[in-house]
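Predict structure. Input: P-loop containing nucleoside triphosphate hydrolase protein, 1086 residues.
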Amino acid sequence: MSERKVPRVVDFSPVVRRHLGWYNGFLPAPRNVLNLDRDKFRRHRESRVTVHGYQTSYSDMFCYVDMKAENQPDFRTVSCPDNTTIKFSIRGGAEIPHFCLVLEITGSENRRRAFTIIWTAFGDKGFDVDRPSYQLNHNPAEAQGVIHTFSSRLQGVKFLWTKLAANSAPKCRGTPNSDNYTIYWGHSEAPYSMGFDAPDTAMQCFSVHQRQAVDSFRQLLSSDLQIRVVTRARGDLMENWRFFAAMPSPTPGPYPLYDCRYVPGGSWCRMKTLPGIDDVAIVNHFGIRERGWMNNPPSWARPPRLGMLCPAKLQFINEREYEVIKTIGLLREVEYQRTAYCDKFNRGYRFSLHPASLVHGVETEGVEQYFYAILDVTPVELPSDSFVENDSALPEPGTQVTVTEPAREGIAQQTWSGLVIQRSRFPPNIRTKTTGNILEVSGYVRFGNVNPAFQQAKAAIRFAMYGNQGLGIPRNNRLREILLAHNNDTFKYDAPLQPGTAARKHLDSLRNKLNEEQLAAVREGIMSATSSKNYVSLITGPPGTGKSRVSAHIAHFHRKVGNRVLIVCGSNHGLDEIARKIIQVFQEENLGTDGIFRLDTEFGEDPDVQMPPDVPQPTAETARVFQSTMQQLKKSGIDPAFLQLLHASVEAMNLQTDSVSNKQLSLGQYILRRLDLAVQQKSQWPQTTDSERTEMALLWQLITYRHCLARRGLLFLETAETNSSTLVAQTSGPKDDPEGILTQLVTSYHRAWSELQEFYLGTSRVVLCTASTAERKPLRSFKPEITIVEEATQISESICVSSLIRFYASLKKIILSGDTAQLPPTVTSVNKNEAVECEKVSLFERLLSTGVRNISLKTQSRMHPDISQFVTLHFYGGGLVNHSSTSVASPIQDFLGKRFNVRPGRSYFLSVTNSTVWRRRGGTSLFNAHYIGVAAELARDLCKAGCAAENIMILSYYAEERNLLRRLINDVLELHQVDILTVDAAQGKEKGIVIVSTTRPGGQSGLGHVADVNRMCVALSRAKGGLVVIGDHTMGGTASSRGFQLWRDLIQHHKSKNHLAIVDGSDKILREKLGLPNEESCERMR
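Output follows.
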């Protein structure tokens, strides 16, 4: 086909505005729909069914295909031998309409392969031919032979309704002389393809004729072809073509109206923001599109489930489809979190300021101007959903906070800004030590703006799809190819790479330490990638199979050979475990941990997101203050009390992390040690190299700015896990700052901290961080060759891509480690997100489903066989193998058997009678006072019987119950070493004895997220030698869902082994020690 060399340039904004009626043809039924005459009523219903069918489904039709090059006179048929089929369909709805041909072959042992070719109705060329304009419900087949051109991939399209010839009928499984469709089209731009990248070895199980058919089908990918498809007549295909032919001319790109569909006037907004999901236009559009007709006028049907509008996708046609679906899912999640959670905490608060000098026992200049304030945040109103119930629902880390103190007599209104930063503990005497000058403050607190990790993820999606020259990411990058997943299912046929000398030696050294599965996983992780097929490797394994240990050995090898390694995890709890394994493995191999840093949240995360972009640079006045202070400090020295306060502030800002691994690997702790050394050595600090001189200057810069701020006052904010409160640590100082010196000092201070982080990370060999902090500015000086993503199933795809794409220029290999039976990504916008089904699927799970290389670990060395039996059968299909070391005898089985008067064993179910579920008034999270009492008494008695407290872990499904268990067991009973966590926080952890409180006894109140299958898998697989589940033997109810069925099965499993005990619960210990529950502050749920 001929085509102009220079395509017409089209401004699609007016095109889209002109045809909004076509894109927005999904309107509610008119009020008089039931009063329409029969013909109009039929036409209205027909158009609605057509639109619904085209948007949500397609029909594959058996066909045969002819093709010819532009300069050839005759068509030739694509061969289709035995056990081979070709199917044609029209798909895509209004967003990404396309023609599709699929060749399927079946070989020996019933092996199947599919090859897909897609011709989209959009392209970069081919806008020169206008086509007829039809209405949505007009039948274009009435005009036989009319030619339509949609794009350079679909040119000269003719859709003919004819009779099936006798010699053509067998080819498409039709009947001679019956109705059929004959479709012609041509393309000058090659179509998209999927599945063709399989090597010859993958095709050996198919016949010679089948392989020839694939080669013949592959020729359709050539440029400048004309194609003819003959298929039987079917109404669904004609309806889809009717909609297809009525598209605007010229055809806009894919998903054009996700930019402007709901913007008044159809103007473009480029997906920076989206209208609310409850907008009338969106509700109407989605309502008709989802419901179709459903035997009732559409406006009468119940509201749709939005996630079904964009089902979970494994493959994407092109970059635009990926960008839209991932960006929409991300923006909806951001908006829902902001409106449903953060905004609900915005109100006036009154709180007390506790002098830091009293809290820390420090009396020195500047310290008296620091205060701690505990802010008990309560929501105005929160949605009732599993996300809120499961956690304390405090605003997420990274959320910007503004505190406005109203004007008072003689004092103008003051506004302070900061960030929410999670942490677990604060000085234990902060609530009890109340002597001194306690200040009472009132102010309006606003939690707002988006977690910066979401903003970074949005940019990362575009970088992965379209490249970024500044970051060294090419347009056709390896990660993009894997994310689109056009040929992922062919990766498994690629021959494994052979290890080099260093890799072989490393593997040989591990043969007495790891099993064969683990060795294979390490081997996969230490091999450099040569193409997209081995650029990403997956390591899958159930609990206790050694995934973290494998990752530690991979990191050990790469450090030895000089490769930099970035280890990313979905949560800080998971990061604790991999940090512990890193230390353990490196100690076993007689290696130090020098150059290994864990990037925590010291000093308010990243200064580029803490400070607004328009904060001015330090002025001459600021520089004068700085230089004067530095000279004074170097001359007179640093007060030790000031350094003590500096240590306390950094340590207080750390997240809840394991104390040993955190102190040993924490970058913040390392900086503190270097600060101490700089203060001690002063002029004796070695300055023979540029690196030594730079480090000295950076350390003294930070000390000086900190000292300047101690004289002027500063505000910090962070969250704490005490009674669902937010702890606000702040300094109160002179408010008058006409020259803006305070603001500039704050900016300079955070910049100094960031520069120190960047300096040390630039020389590090291994860095550990969470996925949400992997894009922090200090890390941009770190150039990893290897990235390992731990607990990858917990990380959403967009956040995971964000932690990978910025390092693309240096990356040689990516390893994702996880288990799809355990916790998936947390998605809160379940009923408020068109792409929620896609958001629920992690990158790990999607790549595993599409065929990316995978090494599976199946031998578990954690759980005793009595504990693993149920987990293996019900979560892993019986495929989990117990290592011999798990069968070691323990006296705990006799203790538990005697205590509950049941058969000795390792796994028990305690059914607590007459329990009651409570929640705090105005709160959302739950607790069961009777279950708390049983768990506390059991933990106390286990310790009395000789079980070490550090060998016990208690899990609860609810944050409020976890908080009360901590106060009762850790504080009141003084069993400080007992770990008490939510189930979600326990993934990756293990203990000798685990007690699980299910909180909900079932019944009319249901089970909430206790019925979640993935959480149940995590809860039941943490114990090594003893597991006790506290619940109700009737909690499984009669519901048919898998979650309820699994609880019934678990209860029956313990009953059949005589490991089920009926226990009389009591809330006496909770009432005596904590005064809870009470009717004043709590309300009964059951």
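The chain has 33 helices and 33 strands.
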